[in-house]
Design brief:
The structure holds two protein chains of two kinds. Chain A is mainly alpha-helical. Chain A contains eight helices and no strands. Chain A has one domain. Classes of the chains: A mainly alpha, B mainly alpha.
């Protein structure tokens, strides 16, 4: 792989990673949010595989494929199973009234991108390489993930926010180092898998008990 | 010089045909026969023969608006690199100048609509300015993202550099900028899903509400200028992201002919795609439009960011 194609492929994968992360803020439909999350998983896998091919490291490529399988396949599948069926109570499948409205959250995402860019500068200066230059992308997705976690009301969109943060942390790890040990990556991935399993069970329980997953309503005590 | 004149003549004559083509595509997809590609020209001829009427109580803003709109559209046509990158107005073929000229036309029309003093005119003007406030910065940012690579905000220079290095189009910055620019072009020219050019329903119309009071030659001028703006913006999209066929500074007659055909094909394809997309799309609620435009603004900003992050 020549230098130019490497940089171009890496940049494209990072661009897709960033775009899918930001579009999560834009969509209200939970099913579409899960699809975007799956696309982001695929972009993350592409980043890792491109890095692996570049360093001629089989371990990285295998890690990338496993990441892709987990984050573009298994996790979206699990979240989708926790989605309410179509034709159920109308507001349940949508993020109807987020704490911050959609237009403002998009502008907030723009500000977060600038913050991430400013914060990443010293890190990039330590070891300037094409991969390190893409670091602001990962940090932007991290901040956007936090933002989703704070401002969305549905349990499932908060789960997606949490997973965005995790995707971003993984991306940061791979972009700044020459590959994370497979054991560490495996441990993190299994952790996330378990968290999603527990959360999806919890979501279903919530829906069975209260008829909705609007977390704001859980603040009040009832008898 | 010849190339620039050719470009203006082509756009001026072709813009109503583009509108006709788009209406025809819509009609066919909706199962109607359609009025033919030449219908907008026939409409313009009919309107031009009518007597000009100005509503009572309107002043110079109302009368000047169509002229300013058409004049600014013509200048933009001469400046933007569509057929040739070597415009005689190269000094002002600048991203900021083009955006300002487009804004000048829109603002003139909004003022003219306010001048009528009718409810619809005011409503349309207010909506148009709301959309404009979000569209202009997005156009600036999206093209700015492309200009970072070139180091110049001259549109001709940007197109030339893309011609020299076609692979540079496949970068996150230009993909994001392309999407952002496409969305704002749809908003700026008042097409579905932002505005519906073929309705006069008071709840939803934006552009049509502003031109309700115009009639005869004034209306013809506005319709024609709107068509020119649409073709120029689609042509600009084509030139920035698929600049193949554009003639350079020292182009012979054959190269110019190729450039003309290429422009017609590019704008035609984009127009057909836009029209076909409109058939399958509903108009957005007015309150959702800022969301769409904020999204495209964000994409443009990320495009600028990406051209700095990943460079």
């Amino acid at each position: 792989m020549t230098d130019q194609t490497y940089v171009q492929l890496l940049d494209l994968a990072c661009g897709a990673f960033l775009l899918t992360g930001v579009l999560v803020l834009w969509r209200r439909d939970l099913a579409a949010i899960v699809r975007l999350f799956a696309a982001q998983g695929a972009a993350l896998a592409a980043i890792v595989i491109v890095l692996g091919v570049r360093q001629a490291s089989t371990e990285l490529v295998v890690a990338g494929l496993a990441l892709g399988g987990l984050r573009a396949g298994l996790l979206p599948y699990l979240i989708r199973r926790a989605l309410p069926e179509r034709g159920g109570p109308d507001a349940e499948g949508r993020e109807t009234r987020p704490v911050v409205n959609v237009a403002s959250s998009l502008v907030a995402a723009a500000v977060l991108a600038l913050v991430a860019y400013a914060v990443a500068q010293p890190l990039i200066r330590i070891a300037p390489s094409p991969a390190a230059h893409a670091l602001p992308v990962a940090l932007t997705v991290l901040l956007v993930g936090f933002f989703v976690l704070v401002t969305r009301r549905r349990a499932l969109s908060q789960v997606v926010g949490f997973l965005l943060i995790d995707n971003a942390i993984t991306a940061t790890a791979f972009l700044t180092t020459n590959g994370v040990p497979l054991v560490v990556e495996l441990g993190v991935s299994l952790d996330v898998l378990l968290a999603v399993l527990v959360l999806s069970v919890l979501t279903n329980r919530m829906r069975a008990a209260f008829g909705g997953t609007d977390l704001d309503e859980l603040r009040e005590l009832r008898d | 010089m010849i190339a620039a004149i050719l470009q203006v003549v082509l756009v001026v004559a072709g813009a109503p045909l583009l509108i006709g083509l788009m209406r025809q595509v819509r009609a066919r997809l909706e199962g109607r026969a359609g009025a033919g590609v030449l219908q907008p020209w026939r409409d313009l001829r009919k309107l031009l023969r009518k007597e000009p009427i100005a509503p009572r109580g309107t002043g110079w803003a109302f009368r000047l608006a169509p002229l300013l709109l058409a004049a600014s559209a013509l200048v933009v046509t001469a400046v933007v690199p569509l057929v040739t990158t070597a415009s005689p107005l190269d000094g002002v073929a600048d991203l900021f100048a083009v955006t300002a000229l487009l804004a000048l036309g829109s603002v003139a029309l909004a003022l003219g609509a306010l001048d009528t003093g009718t409810a619809f005119g005011g409503m349309g003007a207010s909506r148009e300015v709301t959309v404009l406030a979000l569209v202009e910065p997005t156009i600036l940012l999206a093209v700015f993202a492309l200009s970072v690579r070139v180091g110049s905000t001259n549109l001709g220079a940007i197109v030339n550099s893309t011609l020299d290095d076609p692979l540079a189009v496949i970068s996150p910055a230009s993909v994001l900028a392309a999407v952002a620019l496409a969305v704002v072009i749809i908003a700026e020219t008042g097409r579905i899903p932002v505005d519906n050019p073929s309705t006069h329903l008071e709840l939803t119309m934006i552009h049509e509400a502003m031109v309700l009071e115009y009639s005869g030659p004034d209306l013809a001028l506005i319709e024609w200028a709107s068509a020119i703006r649409l073709s120029v913006l689609l042509g600009l999209l084509g030139s920035l992201f698929a600049p193949w066929g554009i003639a350079g500074a020292e182009a012979g007659p054959v190269a110019l002919l190729v450039a003309v055909v290429a422009l017609a094909v590019k704008v035609g394809v984009l127009g057909v795609l836009l029209a076909a997309g409109e058939v399958f799309m509903a108009k957005l609620r007015l309150f959702r439009i800022p969301e769409l435009l904020a999204g495209s603004f964000l994409m443009a900003l990320l495009a600028v960011g990406a051209s700095f992050f990943l460079a």
